[in-house]
Amino acid sequence: TEAASALALDLGSSSARAILGSLRDGVLVTQEVHRLTHRAQMRQGSLCWDIEALNSAVADGLDAARQALGTHPASIGIDTWGVDYGLLDHDGALLRPPRAYRDARMARHSAALEGRIDRAGAWQATGVLPMEINTSYQVFADLQEEPGLAQRVGALLPLPDLLAHELGAPVGVGRAIASTTGLAAPGARQWSPVMAQAIDLPESWLAPLVDDAVVSGSIAGTGTAIVRPGGHDTACAVHSLGLAPHQTALFISCGSWSLIGATVPEPIVEPGVLEAGLSNEVRTDGGVRLLRNLTGLWLLQECQRAWGEDDVAGLVEAAGRARSLGVVVDPDDPAFMAPGDMPAALGEWCQEHYGIEPSGRAQMVRLILESLACAHAEHAERLAGLVGSALAPGAPIHLVGGGARNRLLAQMTATACQRPVVIGAVEASAMGNLLAQFEATGAARPQDRDAIVRQSCQRAVLEPEDPSAFTDMRERLARARIR
Ligand code: LFR
Predict the structure, then answer these.
(1) How far apart are CA 381 and CA 386, in angstroms?
(2) Whose CA is nearest to atom 1 of ligand 1?
(3) What's the gap in Å between 234 CA and the centre of ligand 1?
(4) Cα–Cα distance measured from residue 226 to residue 164, given in angstroms and rounded to the nearest whole number
(5) Looking at this predicted complex, what is its ipTM?
(6) 225, 319, 340, 448: which sits with the fewest CB atoms below 10 Å from its CB?
């Protein structure tokens, strides 16, 4: 049979990749046809994304796909990191470069926003944990700092919808990415009037919410269908797990962020979920991913940047041989949020909390990985407590994303959590993006997703080992947090 083709544009905060997929006889073969590295830059006092570069990554990816195929791909889907957005004016032109969620402006206004609607209220209205990076906090800061902005904006488009619109898709916001904004009601079937009112956000900014995994337009003159694959990279990563809509399972999508969560059918809006620091984000298939945003390999990436060291594999290998410091940091501490001298920040945190600090790169990397494993364990327990029997002890955790390449972290996670870790796709977002496109264009049926994933990527299972070192480290962290 003839292969069906699709092109996934997967935009991460440090690289954009174009991955061409061909599906034949239930096997999905992928090929990276283009890659661009990029990072947020200061422009006129704000941390901004280079939108021209991101748009050209899409165009260059399409060109490369055409060359590889000898024809236009049947469809294209774009996924990006969550929460960032572009503002269009009333003529549909981009007002200014989209700002990055690590920009400092939200810190100046978050208290004022929480004075208008407290955290419990915002959570109740959206099902999403209030975090300063959320679109809600970002737009509130924009509106405070830019008088007249409210009138100048015709539409707020999350990045994947902005890029899809550039290609020719009508203005609209996919439900999966909408759910990360903190502006949509739980389940993202509509925008939250409560949040819009609290922020003084004109209703006209909020474009129609649309389903994911459906064809939403086409690129003029090519016949290439534009599909919203679940514009959020994490939604795509979860789609790559191949779970049935009602299957409840634990997952970790590990990259700069470590998204640990459980797939559940409906939003869970109970106080315990807020206390556990969890968000109800929407999946590509319309179900929910109940998850926690943990700072993830960002800590390592920033150390690498400080050290000028590209060789992750080498660092991880050395960490495997290094002696453990015996303590861990809280990866979510605000001290680690902004780009900066991460080795110094980690060292200071350890000094301040334990009176010791790592010596040498290998021990520093080990500290980071052990810290992530302990954070994974803490949140896996909370999720299991909330979701119940489907996540009973021993139920596995599916680990996907760049972190799935890091076997040391995967093994530490299995041991700290005392659960088998099932290693899935490294390019999970691209994989889920492609699957959503094939489902939208009719090249694959949703019920065959699991079989396609099984036939297309190798899954390894890592079994837990003796957890006592991790138990000790978690106890020390709990004591350090109280102090
Ligand atoms: C992962 C991710 C998370 C989101 C964070 C910020 O890449 O999309 O899901 O909360 O980045 O955008």
Answers:
(1) 9
(2) 81
(3) 7
(4) 7
(5) 0.96
(6) 340
CB 280 within 8 A of CB 293: no
- Overall pTM > 0.90: yes
How far is 372 from 380, CA to CA, in rounded Å?
Answer: 12
Q: Which residue has the tokens 């200071």?
A: 348
Q: What is the DSSP letter of 457?
A: S
Check if 132 has its Cβ closer than 6 Å to any atom of ligand 1: no
For residues 211 and 235, give the distance between their C-alpha atoms in angstroms, rounded to a whole number: 13
CA–centroid distance, 258 to ligand 1, in Å, is 9
Closest residue by Cα to atom 11, ligand 1, is: 81
Q: How many of the other CB atoms lie within 10 Å of CB of 468?
A: 9
How does strand 257-264 pair with strand 250-254? antiparallel
Of all protein residues, the one whose alpha carbon is nearest to atom 2 of ligand 1 is 81
- Three-state DSSP at 88 gives strand
Instruction: List Cβ neighbours of 400 (8 Å cut-off, separation of 6 or more).
Output: 237, 240, 241, 251, 252, 253, 254, 423, 424, 425, 426, 428
CA of 290 to the centre of ligand 1 (A): 14
| CA–CA gap between residue 366 and residue 182 (Å, rounded) | 34
Q: Render pLDDT for 356-397 as a digit per residue (tens, 0 to 9).
A: 999 999 999 999 999 999 999 999 999 999 999 889 999 999
| 255 ligand 1 Cβ < 6 A | yes
Which residue from 47, 136, 257 has its CB within 8 A of the most atoms of ligand 1, so it is best to mutate?
257
